[in-house]
Design goal:
This protein is mainly beta. About 0% of the residues lie in helices and about 50% in strands. It has strands at about 1-5, 10-15, 20-25, 35-40, 45-50, 60, 70-75, 80-85, 90-100, 110-115, 115-120. Strands 2, 4, 5, 6, 9, 10 and 11 form a 7-stranded mixed sheet that branches. It has a 4-stranded antiparallel sheet with strand order 1-3-8-7, with no helix packed on it. A hairpin with a 6-residue loop joins strand 4 and strand 5 (about 45-50). The chain starts with a strand and ends with a strand.
């Protein structure tokens, strides 16, 4: 059993920053690639970013590239999403997920998901 718990969401003004956390337990967290997705009201879930199991590579959606950074703390079994220069269009519920295979930008490549954390960016 894998449990992923996101935290760190909140309300921030445009141009501000937030850092989301994804704490993992259960199946060896450090041995898996991980991803971040988001879903805005009335929209489909979309890929945000992905990081390999060893943190050596990370890939981002074009919409967040240069503004968002994913990192991992293996001692804490935690993954982070640092979000800078936030825009109102970044408003969404953000989810972390554990990768099992396939295209990393697709939701069906992940088997375990957190419950999500709300990020609201005001203009």
């Amino acid at each position: 059993q894998v449990l992923l718990v996101e935290s760190g969401g909140g309300l921030v003004q445009a141009g501000g920053s937030l850092r989301l956390s994804c704490a993992g337990s259960g199946r060896t967290f450090s041995g898996y690639d991980m991803g971040w997705f988001r879903q805005a009201p009335g929209k489909e879930r979309e890929f945000v970013g992905y990081i390999t199991w060893n943190g050596g590579n990370a890939y981002y959606a074009d919409s967040v590239k240069g503004r968002f950074t994913i990192s991992r703390d293996y001692a804490k079994n935690t993954m982070y999403l640092q979000m800078n220069s936030l825009k109102p269009e970044d408003t969404a519920v953000y989810y972390c997920a554990q990768y099992i295979g396939g295209s990393y930008s697709r939701g069906n490549a992940y088997d375990y998901w957190g419950q999500g954390t709300q990020v609201t960016v005001s203009s």
